[in-house]
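idk why but the lab printer keeps eating my pages so im just putting this in chat instead. protein + NAP:
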Amino acid sequence: MKPHRIAIVGLGKIAIDQHVPSILGNPYFELAAIVSARGATVGDVPSFRTLDAFLTEMPDVELVAVCTPPAGRFALVRAALQAGRHVLIEKPPSATLGEITELAAIAAAERRVLFATWHSRFNPAVEEARKRLVGQRLLRLEVNWREDVRRWHPGQAWIWEAGGFGVFDPGSNALSIVTDIAPEPLFVASAKMEVPSNCQTAIGAELTFSTPDPIEGSRLGAVFDWRWEGEQSWTITIETTEGTRLTLTEGGTKLFVDDVLLVDEPSREYPRIYERFVTLLAEGRSDVDTRPLQLIADAFLVGERKQVEAFED
Ligand code: NAP
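predcted complex ->
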């Protein structure tokens, strides 16, 4: 089979760490171009300063992976779709719900595949958790996403700007898992956000959730904290009225059921994302799930804000 030719737009941390090796390691793809405002590239792959230049000069490259920050992505994704390319995008899919809804409509109108990835979902432990929760009712949901922003996002100014998501950027990984495995819809009941005095986005947030028919005494919530310098924690614990008790740790790579380790596989999130892209392309089907973004948007709608001390990178 002839490989799909693909271009990466935005050669930053995640593109270099994950997209490039996943594309190079998958025989169904050929890395054909890079679009980089800085003029960066990989080896001798042709590099273009603008998306328009790439779209004009390489009409035979059918796929685009957009790895820029969410703000500003709408125009790039729309241009690529309208130029007849299938598009894969990093999470969170866009700066607003309105943008991703419109992009999904454009993809449908253009008969192109749009794949809005949520990388944390691509772990076998997450799949197993989903299966085990089918048909059950949530009694307890505890998300603890505590990490050190200086360690994971050094020098990334955009995350502190309006539309940059702040702590909801990693928090969206937790919300993507929770919306994937929860056996019933979740709403944001309340939210508290801590915003550094020199930033536009939160460094800490606490959410409480409800469900359409909440169980009396249920406790459903999430804590996202970017000031955590101790042991980093990305855990989700769930208890159901049926007695299931499971914990996903290390961002969804390990699954414990009743404290017994059941799934522990090395993370292959990005190779699996590209395997799924192959399937979506073969089926001519888009995959755009806006539920994690909806929860973030709703946290902004109902949330209280508190100003906290300035953040210096
Ligand atoms: P990054 O290191 O800042 O890279 C983003 C790249 O996008 C830049 O290098 C730049 O590439 C391009 N770009 C275009 N417009 C930009 C702007 N206004 N500000 C900054 N860069 C701009 O960011 P990243 O960590 O790779 O994150 C990109 C996306 O991937 C985000 O949505 C993030 O949530 C997601 N993601 C990140 C990680 C992670 O561990 N970092 C993990 C999973 C998902 P050029 O100079 O080449 O144009």
